[in-house]
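# step 3/5: fold
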Amino acid sequence: MTAAGSSVRLDPGLALIFDMDGVLLDSNPVHREVWTAFNRSYGLDTTEAMLQSMYGKRNDEIVRDFFGSDLSSEEVARRGAAKEKLYRETIAGRVEQMLVPGVKAFLRKLDGARMAVATNAEPENVALVLDQGGIDRCFQVIVDGHQVRKPKPDPEIYCLAAQRLGVAERNCIVFEDSKSGVLAAHDAGTRIVGILTTEDNLPYVNICANNFLSEHLCEWLAAQQCVS
């Protein structure tokens, strides 16, 4: 059994890839709040179904879902940037308190492992969260939603993260909280840890945990082996 506070002996042939929203940061409640306020400024009432539909999507997709597909690319980008600016203003100074329970200690236990962040989020959001969360030095690779042609659920972002880490997809372990993200990881051929902050009953996952305080998660990771 992995003792509390001890390091996790991860097979050196493996790599870990983390989604951000809902995995590193319990941010979806704030995204819901900010989208509701932002949409209201355009006279749009935000339903629960709309909020549920945004999980795991890139900003341009959400804007088109909410405001219609006839918007120009420039207007989509403008509205998305304005919403994300409001989001960053809302979480500034609160990031460390919003981290998913246990994640900082969990990352410390894995010191020396190859790790990446792969998220549909805006690059400015990623920089803010990793910096103010005090976890920016944990990751050797960062892939955001602007670095891929197709966002999750397309597997491109996880394939690119694996390539930059120098590890085959089958030897990467992805941490995801949404069905869209899990589908992307599955189609990339990775192993998958479901973090149950956003959705229950995630498909394709190898193991689930409510957060990073789970001892059985560390034990499972320690038992994983590189496949040639």
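# step 4/5: annotate
Residues 10 and 98 are 27 Å apart (CA to CA).
# step 5/5: archive (pending)
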